[in-house]
Amino acid sequence: MKKKKAYSTNFIIGAVITGIVLVMIIIGFIHTPYDITKMNSAVKLAPPSLKHLMGCDNFGRDIFSRVLKGMGNTFVIAFATVTIGAVCGVVIGAFTGFFGGWLDEVLMRINDVLFAFPSILLALVFVSIFGTGKYNVVAALGIAFIPSFARIVRGEFIKYREMDYVKSARLAGVSQIRIIFVHILPNTMTVLLSSIMIGFNNAVLAEAGMSYLGIGVQPPDASLGSMLSESQTYLFSAPWYAIFPGAMIILMVLGFSLLADGIKEK
Amino acid sequence: MLLEVNNLNIEFYDHDLPERVVNDLNMKLDEGEILGIVGESGSGKSMTAMAIAGLLKRHDMKTEGEILFEGEELLHAKRDTLRQYQGNEISIVFQEPMTSLNPVKRIGWQVEESLRIHRPDLDSSERYRRAIEALRDVELDQPELIYKKYPHELSGGMRQRVMIASAMICEPKLLIADEPTTALDVTIQLQIVKLLQRLNREKHTTILFISHDLSLVRRLCSRIIVMQNGIVVETGTTEDIFHNPVQEYTRMLINAIPKLEKPVI
Question: How confident is the model over A186-202, as a mean pLDDT?
Answer without folding.
Answer: 87
